[in-house]
């Protein structure tokens, strides 16, 4: 049957996928924390502190 074959396991490809996923999680958490720390200060600096939205 065409298309139902199970591909062979490639540990190097799995390692690359794991590293990319780990990097994505680290960046997501890191940028989220950075936004919490300095996000409001940057918005105040650029907009002028008017927070009456």
UniProtKB/TrEMBL annotation:
Highest taxon of source: Archaea
Transmembrane segments: 12-31
Pfam families: DUF7512
Keywords, sorted A to Z: Membrane, Transmembrane, Transmembrane helix
Protein name from the UniProt record: Uncharacterized protein
Native organism: Natronorubrum thiooxidans
